[in-house]
Amino acid sequence: MRKRIEGLRTQFRELQTQNEQQEEVIKVGNDDFNIDPEYFEMLLERSAAKIDETHKEVAWNIEYHTVRLDKLKAKFYDVLDFEKYTVKAMTTSSYVTTFRVPKMSEFLNRNIEQFRALIA
Q1: Are residue 106 and residue 85 in the same domain, yes or no?
Q2: Residue 65: enclosing H or E segment and its boundaries?
Q3: How confident is residue 15, by pLDDT bands cut at 50, 70 and 90?
Q4: pLDDT band at 120 (very low <50, low <70, confident <90, very high)
């Protein structure tokens, strides 16, 4: 069957080259080579449906990992007031690293504001 299909393909290529060598008046248009346009449309629709299904699967996977990443950020990074940074010297091997500072609780913030109000 594969040999037969390959033979049909070579015949088709030969017909196309013969068509290209003809005069403009005699040339057959490319649309006329399409013998079964309904089948071709069906193949295009199947391909479009498969592509759409793949996009949906990928979108679900992206959303799943985005939600997981947001949860991790909320648990570990959103509680920090200041992130850890390292500054390295250009000429020597010295460096300075800051501390991770967690955010103060709402209770502590209220008490600090009350204390400042008392001082003022």
Answers
A1: yes
A2: helix 37-76
A3: confident
A4: confident
Work out the burial of residue 42: count CB atoms within 10 Å of its CB; fewer than 13 is exposed, 13-18 middle, 19 or more buried: exposed
| Count of structural domains, the chain | 3
Q: Are residues 42 and 10 in the same domain?
A: no
User: Which residue range(s) make up the domain with 66?
Assistant: 34-78
Q: Are residues 70 and 89 in the same domain?
A: no
Higher-confidence residue of 80 and 66: namely 66
3-state helix, strand, coil in the chain (%, to 5): 65, 10, 25
Regarding whether 90 and 67 lie in a shared domain, the answer is no
85 & 111 share domain: yes
The burial of 100, by beta-carbon neighbours within 10 Å (0-12 exposed, 13-18 middle, 19 or more buried), is given as: middle
Q: What is the mean pLDDT of residues 33-60?
A: 91
Q: How much is the average pLDDT of 22-49?
A: 85
